[in-house]
Amino acid sequence: MSDLACSNEDIIGALDGLGPVTTGELAGMVDCSDGALEDSLDALVDAGVVETRVVDGCSRLWWRIPDDKEGVDTFRAELAERLRPLTDPEEIQSVAGKLLAERLDVDRALYLEVFPDEETLQVRDGYARDGLTEVETKHRFSDFGDHVGDRLRRGEPLVVDDVTAIEDQSDEQEAAYLAADIHAYLTVPLLKSGRLVGLFTLQQTTPREWSDTAVELTRETVESTWAAVERARAERELAETNSILRRLTDASQVFIDADVATLRERVVELAREVVDCPSTTLWRYDKDEGELRAVDSETDPEHATPDRPSDQRSERAWAAFVSGEPAVESELDAPAGVPEDPSAEPIRSRLVVPLGRHGVLEVASTEPGRFDSGTLDLVETLAATIETAWDRASGEAALQRRNRELQELDELNTLIRRIDQSLVEADTVSAIDKTVCERLAESERYLFAWVGGYDPEPPAVSPRAWAGVDSSAIEALTATTDPTADDRLGPGTPATDPFVTAVQSSEMQTVGDIATDVRATPWREAALERGARSCHCIPLVYEESAFGVLVVYAATPHRGDRDEQVLAELGGTIAHAIHAAEAAATRQGGSVVELTLRVTDAKTPLCRLSRETGCVIESDGVVVGDGAEPTVVFTASGVTREALMTAAESSLSVDSLRALAAGEGGTLCKAEIADDSLVTRLQSDSATVQSLTIDAGVATAVVTLPETAAVREYLDGLTATGLELELIARRTRERSPDTTQRLQTAFREQLTPRQQEVFALAYRCGFFESPRVQTGAELADALGIAQSTFNYHLRGAQRQLCAAVFDPAGAAQTDHHWQE
Question: Which of 413, 414, 435, 440 minimizes the C-alpha distance to 424?
């Protein structure tokens, strides 16, 4: 071999069309020594004509860098052609890296994106020869020294032929390069609008001298790669936006025509489809409770762990609802513990948007920072669509409900008018009861109805007219004894009777759902068998007088109270009609007014005696004897004779009490009382006490007044005496014939006080029964007189009775009332 310097033309001519060759192989081609050849090759490398790299630690490979424009253009054309049809950013980065690596014969070519902080960079994709060590995908510039980041941010490429020769490099940094099989590298930055956005790095497993051509081709490749990636991402975002808009449009079409129930069922499902998030929850505002509740939730179990309820979630949802502003949580902590499904990821970000007065919509993702401004705009648009649809559906539902209620009210008013017309034609109480029940049962609104009268002792309602059901069903429908009351409410505690309560309170009682209302227990089965699901118990009250109760049954559970006022007014109309009918009968002279009164906290002797002993006293009347103190005959039950006598002895108002006889109904007693009795107060020239029952100090009296009596003046007069009165019932009934009343009055006037006392006591104590309940001797002893005196007065009274019956003319000589 010649020791002369080799000709550059010979060297370039030998390398043309060849790949990398060793120094020895090339020396044989040009007939030149290795030393002289390397000197010439180094000069060509410096000139950018030849490329070289070291292999196996000492050998060097050489190859010709194409200096023709055609080769570079071919690479550029191929790169553009290969990248143009690609739509996946990672595939674009991989193809670009492989083409550049093949062109420049490098071991690794990687495309990296720089985060907005210009400090963090992420390896996206690229090319690497088989067998190379995998590099970490995420780095920080500070890991390589401050000078690296500073130069790249200024747009300066980093050209390192040998990492072991880098000045101011720590041993750790050098070791990191070598551990990653990096002995030389070329990194070209890409700046956009003055900001570092990406870079391409070429790495060699051996030291290498990088040519200017390599730098230029890398710069063009990173520019083309970035442009292709941005285009692909823009196209993908556009496609995703169009897809989102289609999904949003489809959802809007569903919402436009949906009713409230459909919205409640579909909102979560459609929202998850539109936003494309693994978890969605609908929180609805309950205006009755004043609370926000999660009413529906949907989570994709294959991709996300269900978002569990928590106070933090509730508070965040409430804050968004109250403020009307969306709330974003971008970095949620991963829940502690092992997940039920290891393949499912925990929720890491959450977005809550308000739905106006309806509640909030919550969407969640497994990706931290998932909800950027674009997603927020999308969810807010969706929320606005849902809110508008819900407002429309709620408004339509409210309008339909109001129209339905108005129609039902109109039907009810039509029914009321028909009943009013029938009331005009009815002239008796029985006719009124019958026509009201028939009109209600004939209507489509109600199934059947009945009218009942009220009996205060014991409190009960008895049906007096009905329609829509037969008489055999009325007994079961008006049952007031609950067979299960002892089990539910305790022994001896009856269930509340809505029929009785309506009369006592003068307020309508509504059993909204017969199937569940405890008040319907006694008659629930009978009502349900006949199709009834609700009923109204309407008191018939006019001017503080109760005339009974009207009960109507409907086929559906009762909702709302719009018709209750109308039904209450109907009750007042019926009561007024009954009052008018009774008043008309009274004016015709064939009736008397009967009042049922309850007297509480009376201080009269018998009331005190009943209150102290807890017994029930039924008074048979007052018999005025020869003395100044009245004699009272009554029956006491629920107390022993001894207890009654002991209580009477300690009473200052009871001078003497004698037990006359004992029977199944109680003990018959006679007492002389010092104070006015309740019967004395209730009875007057115009009022007659028909019955008086005192139970534990509370008295119930039935009093009759003549047709011309002023009831209000009579009651006011009783109240003025200190009595606490309650008018339980008022009704008109046929009076006893006038002849009978005149005969009774005339007969009493013919008797002396002692004869009245003896005769009445003998009658009430069973003296005239067969066999006799009390003998003459026993009655004489009870009166404190001799038996002969008793017999004398008894025969005198009997003689007057016989004279009134058999010798009316003789009787007329002594009493003008006996004129017939």
Answer: 435
The domain ranges of the chain are 8-64, 69-236, 258-333+343-396, 426-581, 589-735, 737-820
* CATH for the 737-820 domain, from 3.90.1720, 1.10.10, 1.20.120, 1.10.3430: 1.10.10
The CATH topology of domain 426-581 is: Beta-Lactamase (3.30.450)
Structure confidence at residue 499 (pLDDT): 92
Sheet holding 616-624, edge to edge: 654-663, 666-673, 630-637, 616-624, 688-695, 698-705, 591-600, 724-734
Rounded Cα–Cα distance for residues 456 and 454 (Å): 6
pTM, two decimal places: 0.46
- What is the number of alpha carbons within 13 Å of residue 412 lying toward its C-beta? 18
Residue 814 has a pLDDT of 43
Alpha carbon distances (Å) from 280 to 316, 379, 763: 15, 11, 89
- List per-block mean pLDDT (blocks of 10 residues) for the chain, which spans 820 residues: 67 77 82 80 78 76 67 80 86 86 87 86 82 81 79 89 85 86 90 88 89 86 87 84 79 78 80 82 86 83 66 86 88 61 72 89 85 84 84 83 80 83 84 90 90 83 90 82 44 64 91 91 92 93 86 87 80 88 68 84 84 86 59 86 87 80 80 76 79 88 81 85 83 63 65 80 81 82 83 86 70 39
From its phi and psi, is residue 718 left (phi > 0), alpha (psi between -120 and 50) or beta? alpha
pLDDT at 492: 37
CATH superfamily of 69-236: GAF domain (3.30.450.40)
Q: Which two tokens stand for residue 185?
A: 């590298």
Q: Mapping DSSP to helix (H, G, I), strand (E, B) and coil, where does residue 704 land?
A: strand
DSSP for 307-320, written as a single string: ----HHHHHHHHHH
Are 248 and 325 in contact by the 8 Å Cβ rule? The answer is no
- Which of 185, 190, 192 minimizes the C-alpha distance to 214? 185
Domain 258-333+343-396 identical in fold to domain 426-581: yes
Q: What are the DSSP calls for 85-154, one per residue? A: T---HHHHHHHHHHHHHHHHT-SEEEEEEEPTTSSEEEEEEEEE-TTPPPPPSEEEGGGG-HHHHHHHHT
Question: CA 93, CA 712: separation in Å to the nearest integer?
Answer: 105
Helix (H) or strand (E) holding 204: strand 195-204
What values do phi and psi take at 238, rounded to 5? -65, -45
As a residue count, the chain comes to: 820
pLDDT value at residue 250: 78
Q: Which residues pair with 621 in a beta bridge?
A: 633
Q: Which residue has the tokens 């129930």?
A: 261
**Rounded CA separation 264/295 (Å):** 9
Residue in the structure block whose two tokens are 């194409």: 66
| Fold observed for domain 258-333+343-396 | Beta-Lactamase (3.30.450)
Collapsing DSSP to helix, strand or coil, 484 comes out as coil
Topology of domain 8-64, per CATH?
Arc Repressor Mutant, subunit A (1.10.10)
Listed residue (130, 138, 126) closest to 92, CA to CA: 126
